[in-house]
Amino acid sequence: MAFLIVVLCILVLIVLVTLARFNAFLAFLIVSALAGWWLGMPVTKITASLQKGIGDTMGGLLIIITLGAMLGKLVAESGAARCIAGSLIRLFGTRYIQWALLIAGFIIGIPLYYGVGFVLLVPLIFSVVYQYKLPAVYIGLPTLAALSITHGFLPPHPSPVALVTQFHADMGLTLIYGLVVAIPALLVAGPLFARYLKKMPAEPSSLFQTTDNEPAKMPGAANSFITALLPVLLLVLMTGLQHLTSEGTEMHSFLVFAGDAPVVMLFCLLVATFSLGVFQGRPIKAVMAIYSEAVKDIVMVMLIIAGAGALKQVLADSGVSEQIAVAMRSWHIPVLVLGWLMAAVIRACIGSATVAGITAAGMMAPLVTAGQVDPNLMVLSVGAGSLMFSHVNDAGFWMFREYFNISIKNTLLSWSVMETIVGIMGLLGVLALNILITG
């Protein structure tokens, strides 16, 4: 009966978000309260459970997501992102321009929030398309695939960070595993798949044309690359050094502190404040204004994650999460596949990768806590499932259609198939990595 109530709650959530057009945060709060009531929780404890879920979830995420958004906004506003793309295009030349844009999308996608990266990259894609008279979808889709993969697999993006917190995974190790899984997924969903889309017609709307930054105001290439990639480099470096030192030593303790994601992000943001801001002639007040705008961009994302945390806590406090975990153990489906499947189904129904990932994580957390699976791989498995089959209920689907000015049929054949390939390749990569790790 408890399992049916949970299914009903997810259906109510889907109806509120899709048909009733409710704000996702409000929908989560309503469903969380209903879930507590239907599952027999004392009404006096439901509110406390909601508050605890929101507090516990956001306590570990607020610093990382906020600092990550600030860094990404500065990378975009300073012209560093365009400098990275331009440098790669010059390096690879016209023959391999698709690869140049793909790598640019991957590098730019690491610090940039998904929506910002999308809006920033599309005019760049079309400027290359017009300059070299190339097929837009063939050139652009691999770049956006790279952006999608960083959004689903790699910290400091909100969804992977939230999953790391829920599963008590290691941020640095998850990032390393994520990079390993991301590369084959990107190659198949990007250049390999795009080869079949060369003849797909697309024309950009003039609405999406943007002006370039003045060259004099743009940072140098080395500065741009180092600042954008610094969080990844430091997280990977600190994780590696921690494994080379003995636990209990002062050096190990320092590396644990220095490699903690909030500390890394704060350090990287301070570096960027000067390297992309003050040293480029931008007043500190102007840099802080950029940071304020960045927070506005991600407020709703954080609220949605908070709402998902409230639902997770209600399911935990009512005991139903443990009941579901016990029931799942008899399904004879590998835990990694089960997490992927849950996220994929919710993604197809709701459309939001973040909501799908966090909701599925709430169901899978007891199995991870019980030690049945590597939590770092579970983050990637759920993340891969949350990217599956983007269609008409996903904002990304419509952004791609409108920016590239193609039919719904062709959007399904290009964008939706690409996202599905990313999800499937992500799962295959996680399963292969699990075999290597477990022997």
From TrEMBL:
GO cellular component: plasma membrane
Superkingdom assignment: Bacteria
UniProt keyword list: Cell membrane, Membrane, Transmembrane, Transmembrane helix, Transport
Places the protein is found: Cell membrane
GO molecular-function term, one example from the UniProt record: gluconate transmembrane transporter activity
Membrane in keyword set: yes
Membrane topology label: Multi-pass membrane protein
Transmembrane residue ranges: 59-76, 97-130, 136-154, 175-197, 221-241, 253-278, 298-315, 335-365, 377-400, 412-437
Record's keyword annotation contains Membrane: yes
Any single Pfam family the record assigns to this protein: GntP_permease
Family statement drawn from the similarity comment of this UniProt entry: Belongs to the GntP permease family.
Protein name in the entry: Gluconate transporter
Taxonomic source organism: Chitinophaga flava
